[in-house]
């Protein structure tokens, strides 16, 4: 009796998987979620688990240098981590052909094959992002997580419930070759900028009497010594009427340069003052140029729709720590009727990836916001048609190798951002994007949090949320001083 | 008295206690309990269920949320909460009964049940608190039955170590407040409106015994829905213009944030309606609400924002009570006819928080169907006693467009107050369609018979005080 029951159970388990018998050809690609069809993936990425709504069983046959088979007794295909890693290692540089068969009740359906190209270019192992409800300008509970891209492990870097519900933003790493530096702003009465240099953590007060507030958007130089930031009087305002939600404008904004070694803040008369708004600065790869967005100041919010930011550059001398004497207009977005934000230089120094929208300085809620690539040598600027989705694509970053880009895309539903990745080829061609894989492939369908400001980096952060809580409550901030 | 008689008395007392509790839940504060449903989202989806296990006290929240979703059904909330409290009482009764020094354990065990009953009546306190307490006390009760003193104590200590941190997290984010009949009235009118029982809303709004802002708000909503906002406006209590829109700002009770969406949605300001629904959900105790997701889906649908609507409808299709509605919505999304409901053709503008006037003027001026927004705008002007703006807005958005089928008496009364004394009265009366009775009433009012015209704008303008 016991044996026959066991046999029945085994038979049931086996038949639960999509059988190898008769099936109907769907004649189209599998509507898997997330869409992982025909993509290029890094050799070290975590398993691209996916689901096929309504399926009772799945069978995936993968043809590469050899054959691989994966089965799932339900709608969710979850790859065993060890087997997945072995497969990617063996198939590095190859294009895999995947055939998915799904069983729906008594019927089996085979979908048109799709491909995965396993790129030998690995991606930076860590990704940080902020999880926040898309309630636009206010927050209740927000956190910053660090995700190990080679697995599904996550770690809480900061949690605002432990820092008096204040805002925490902009975890940004330098992606330098020698030292690892990063910063994160913790706002609030006892807040400060958390500056990490190879594990040595400092709490900095970047506001001075001679500059308009604390550091906001910015980057740390490759050697970790300097930071180029904006000070900005940021004002949120609501859209009324149609699809757009929130507009954020700067009542004023200037560039500031931080010297973390000297503890000083300086600026340039060319990039401060009420006539122009300067924001979103970034370093060139050699650290000798600062790129930033700049617009003629207009009364806001009355003229917010007419605010167009162009891309400018200013020279920087790392030896003296001084910004140059002339500004150069790099991209005339105004002439295109556009506005640029978030410029980021590629690590090979060839490109600047930026966000282009119709107006303003904070385009993450603009449906028309796209990623555009600027080739420095030729001066050509073009939208990344392959990667841009239906809605906002923004908050991008490069991997330290320059072979991968990651950004927050609201392509699926206009509201909830998710981290997407694309491979960048030698010639600047960009592959079809894929979303950050999750252990549970249905996670994005049920989450009420938006993934915000994804940031790639190579080394795990040396702090966690418990430290940030102490950082906020117990540590005194080092006051930086202004120098001309 | 014998021990048996003692027990019988205790039993009667305990029974009466729970019957009284049930009656309070069912008949006095049913909407305090129903409001808990507004702060819960329970999806039958493994990905969603997995999210519970990333936070403390997963089992309590899972059971609590699953039960709470049924609080919308009549009688269910009172039944579930009373049964839970009986279980909690029984658990404590068992534990206290095991202690020889405790006299009348059945009565002492009522104390935690009473405390929980008080917490249950705070809408923001999740049912998980009661479920958690129940599990907690019965696990301890089970541990007390373990034979042998050492294993028993080790188990109890282990349980305490494991469960106390979870217990602490159960009530971490909720606001505890005293139940009140005034709030009950507000909650009740909210649920009547949500159920589409607008006649009941109107009746309750006319009574408004506590002169509540929320009740006035829903009354106005009932009038606006029926296209008679100006006709009904002064037939009920008006806390000046505060009864038209509930301000969205930090610190506002979550329930009010959620309620604030309705008027914005009705007036056609979908962007701001979505904003306040989002805030309602964000500032709910655990940043989730099936009711707000339903509203967000509704708003997105009306706005022609189908991708957003699809996302929310897909989530709701995994809930127990919203499933049918969501599946119908998803089906509608796939059809051309379903997509013809789009009404949003107004201009995109920027507005400061709670600047309703600018937003309404934009909709009134640019939307194809801006009648509701126009009425809200004009009533806002009138309740604010801003006759200059009223006249300007009337001339810009109402005159020649909506006055063809007659001018509401309220507007006629207000218009009379704006007429130019140097221009021919007859010409103005004709131009603005002022009816003879209105003119006669005005004459009577000016003669001093004011009490006859308590529902007139003249009376309001003369006597209404700014609301606190």
Q: Short description, anyone?
A:
Chain A is mainly β and 484 residues long. Chain A folds into 2 domains: 23-119, Sandwich (Immunoglobulin-like), CATH 2.60.40; 126-478, TolB, C-terminal domain (Neuraminidase).
Keywords:
heterodimer, A: 484 residues, Immunoglobulin-like, Neuraminidase, 2 domains, five-stranded mixed sheet, 4 helices, 35 strands, globular, B: 468 residues, Serine Threonine Protein Phosphatase 5, Tetratricopeptide repeat, 4 domains
In whole angstroms, the N-to-C terminal distance of chain B is 58 Å
Oligomer: heterodimer
Structural class of chain B: mainly alpha
Radius of gyration of chain B: 28 Å
Shape of chain A: globular
Helix content of chain A: under 10%
As residue ranges, the low-confidence spans of chain B are none
Which two protein chains have the largest interface (Cβ within 8 Å of the partner's Cβ), and how many residues from each?
A-B, 38 and 45 residues
Overall domain count of chain A: 2
Provide a count of the helices of chain B: 25
**SS summary, helix count of chain A:** 4
Number of strands of chain A: 35
Instruction: Determine the strand fraction of chain B and express it as a percent band.
Output: under 5%
Largest sheet of chain B, in brief, is: none
What is the arithmetic mean of pLDDT of chain B?
90
Listing every helix as H and every strand as E from the N terminus to the C terminus, the arrangement of chain B reads HHHHHHHHHHHHHHHHHHEHHHHHHH
List the helices and strands and how they pair.
The complex is a heterodimer of chains A (484) and B (468).
Chain A: H1 2-16, E1 24-29, E2 39-42, E3 50-51, E4 57-63, E5 67-72, E6 76-77, H2 81-90, E7 95-104, E8 107-112, E9 114-119, E10 126-132, E11 143-148, E12 154-159, E13 168-173, E14 181-186, E15 192-197, E16 200-205, E17 215-220, E18 226-240, E19 246-259, E20 264-266, E21 276-283, E22 289-296, E23 310-317, E24 322-331, E25 339-345, E26 351-357, E27 370-375, E28 380-383, E29 393-398, E30 404-409, E31 418-423, E32 434-435, H3 443-446, E33 450-457, H4 465-473, E34 478-479, E35 481-482
Parallel strand pairs in A: 1-8, 2-9, 16-34, 20-35
Antiparallel strand pairs in A: 3-6, 4-5, 4-7, 7-8, 7-9, 10-11, 10-33, 11-12, 13-14, 14-15, 15-16, 17-18, 18-19, 19-20, 21-22, 22-23, 23-24, 25-26, 26-27, 27-28, 29-30, 30-31, 31-32
Chain B: H1 3-28, H2 30-37, H3 46-52, H4 58-68, H5 76-97, H6 105-108, H7 110-120, H8 128-144, H9 149-170, H10 181-194, H11 198-207, H12 213-225, H13 229-232, H14 254-267, H15 270-282, H16 290-302, H17 306-316, H18 323-333, E1 349-351, H19 356-366, H20 371-383, H21 387-398, H22 409-418, H23 425-431, H24 436-447, H25 457-463
Helix pairs in contact in B: 1-5, 2-10, 4-8, 5-7, 5-8, 8-9, 10-11, 10-12, 11-12, 12-14, 14-15, 15-16, 16-17, 17-18, 19-20, 20-21, 21-22
């Amino acid at each position: 009796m016991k044996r026959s029951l066991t046999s029945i159970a085994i038979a049931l388990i086996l038949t639960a998987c999509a059988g190898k018998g008769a099936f109907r050809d769907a004649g189209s690609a599998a509507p898997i979620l997330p869409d992982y069809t025909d993509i290029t993936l890094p050799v070290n990425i975590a398993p691209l688990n996916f689901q096929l709504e309504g399926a009772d069983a799945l069978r995936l046959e993968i043809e590469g240098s050899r054959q691989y088979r994966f089965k799932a007794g339900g709608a969710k295909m979850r790859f065993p981590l060890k087997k997945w890693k072995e497969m990617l290692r063996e198939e590095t540089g190859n294009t895999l052909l995947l055939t998915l068969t799904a069983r729906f009740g008594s019927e089996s359906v085979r979908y048109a094959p799709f491909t995965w190209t396993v790129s030998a270019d690995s991606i930076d192992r860590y990704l940080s992002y902020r999880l926040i409800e898309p309630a636009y300008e206010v927050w209740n509970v927000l956190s910053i997580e660090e995700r190990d891209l080679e697995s599904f492990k996550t770690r809480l870097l900061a949690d605002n419930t432990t820092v008096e519900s204040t805002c925490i933003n902009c975890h940004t790493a330098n992606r330098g070759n020698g030292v690892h530096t990063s910063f994160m702003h913790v706002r609030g009465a006892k807040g400060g900028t958390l500056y990490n240099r190879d594990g040595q953590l400092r709490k900095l007060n970047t506001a001075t009497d001679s500059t308009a507030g604390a550091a906001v958007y910015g980057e740390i130089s490759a050697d970790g010594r300097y930071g180029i930031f904006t000070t900005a009087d940021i004002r949120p305002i609501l859209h009324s009427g149609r699809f757009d939600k929130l507009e954020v404008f700067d009542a004023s904004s200037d560039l500031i340069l931080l010297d973390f070694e000297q503890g000083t803040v300086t600026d340039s008369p060319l990039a401060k003052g009420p006539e122009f708004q300067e924001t979103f600065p970034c370093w060139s790869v050699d650290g000798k140029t600062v790129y930033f967005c700049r617009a003629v100041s207009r009364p806001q919010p009355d003229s917010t729709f007419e605010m167009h930011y162009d891309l400018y550059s200013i020279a920087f001398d790392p030896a003296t720590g001084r910004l140059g004497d002339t500004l150069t207009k790099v991209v005339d977005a105004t002439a295109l009727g556009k506005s640029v934000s978030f410029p980021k230089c590629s690590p090979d120094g060839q490109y600047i990836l930026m966000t282009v929208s119709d107006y303003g300085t904070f385009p993450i809620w603009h449906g028309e916001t796209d990623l555009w690539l600027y080739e420095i040598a030729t001066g050509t600027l073009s939208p990344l048609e392959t990667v841009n989705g239906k809605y906002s694509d923004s908050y991008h970053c490069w991997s330290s190798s320059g072979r991968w880009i990651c950004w927050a895309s609201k392509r699926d539903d206009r509201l909830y951002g998710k981290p997407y990745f694309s491979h960048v080829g030698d010639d600047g061609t960009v592959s079809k994007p894929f979303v950050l894989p999750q252990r549970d492939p249905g996670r994005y369908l049920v989450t009420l949090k938006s993934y915000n400001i994804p940031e790639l980096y190579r080394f795990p952060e040396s702090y966690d949320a418990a430290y940030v809580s102490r950082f906020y409550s117990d540590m005194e901030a080092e006051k930086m001083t202004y120098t001309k | 008295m014998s021990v048996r008689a003692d027990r019988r008395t205790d039993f009667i007392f305990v029974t009466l206690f729970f019957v009284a509790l049930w009656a309070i839940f069912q008949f006095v504060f049913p909407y305090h309990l129903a409001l808990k449903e507004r702060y819960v989202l329970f999806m039958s989806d493994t990905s969603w269920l997995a999210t519970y296990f990333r936070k403390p006290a997963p089992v309590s929240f899972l059971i609590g949320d699953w039960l709470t979703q049924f609080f919308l059904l009549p009688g269910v909330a009172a039944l579930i909460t009373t049964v839970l409290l009986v279980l909690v009482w029984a658990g404590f009764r068992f534990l206290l009964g095991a202690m020889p020094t405790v006299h009348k354990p059945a009565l002492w065990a009522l104390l935690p049940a009473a405390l929980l009953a008080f917490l249950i009546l705070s809408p923001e306190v999740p049912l998980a608190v009661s479920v958690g307490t129940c599990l907690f006390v019965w696990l301890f009760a089970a541990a007390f039955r373990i034979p042998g003193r050492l294993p028993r104590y080790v188990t109890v200590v282990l349980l305490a170590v494991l469960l106390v941190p979870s217990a602490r997290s159960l009530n971490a984010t909720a606001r505890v407040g005293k139940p009140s009949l005034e709030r009950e009235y507000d909650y009740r009118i909210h649920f009547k409106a949500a159920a589409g029982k607008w006649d009941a809303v109107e009746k309750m709004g006319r009574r408004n015994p506590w002169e509540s802002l929320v009740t006035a708000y829903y009354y106005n909503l009932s009038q606006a829905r029926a296209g008679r906002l100006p006709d009904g406006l002064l037939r009920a209590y008006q806390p000046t213009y505060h009864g038209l829109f509930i301000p969205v700002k930090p610190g506002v009770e979550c329930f009010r944030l959620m309620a604030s969406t309705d008027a914005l949605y009705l007036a056609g300001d979908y962007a701001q309606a979505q904003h306040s629904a989002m805030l309602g959900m964000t500032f709910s105790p655990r940043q989730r609400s099936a009711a707000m997701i339903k509203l967000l889906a509704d708003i997105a649908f009306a706005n022609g924002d189908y991708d957003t609507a699809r996302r929310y409808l897909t989530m709701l299709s995994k809930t127990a009570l919203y499933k049918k509605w969501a599946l119908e919505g998803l089906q509608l999304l796939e059809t051309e006819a379903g997509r013809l409901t789009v009404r949003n053709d107004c201009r995109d503008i920027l507005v400061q928080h709670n600047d309703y006037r600018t937003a309404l003027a934009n909709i009134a001026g640019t939307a194809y169907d801006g009648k509701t927004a126009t009425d809200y705008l004009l009533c806002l002007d009138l309740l604010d006693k801003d006759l200059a703006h009223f006249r300007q807005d009337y001339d810009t958005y109402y005159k020649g467009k909506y006055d063809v089928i007659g001018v509401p008496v309220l507007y006629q009364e207000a218009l009379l107050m704006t007429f130019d004394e140097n221009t021919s009265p007859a010409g103005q009366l004709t131009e603005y369609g002022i009816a003879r009775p209105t003119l006669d009433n005005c004459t009577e009012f000016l003669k001093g018979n004011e009490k006859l015209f308590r529902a007139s704008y003249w009376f309001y303008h003369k006597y209404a005080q700014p609301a606190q």
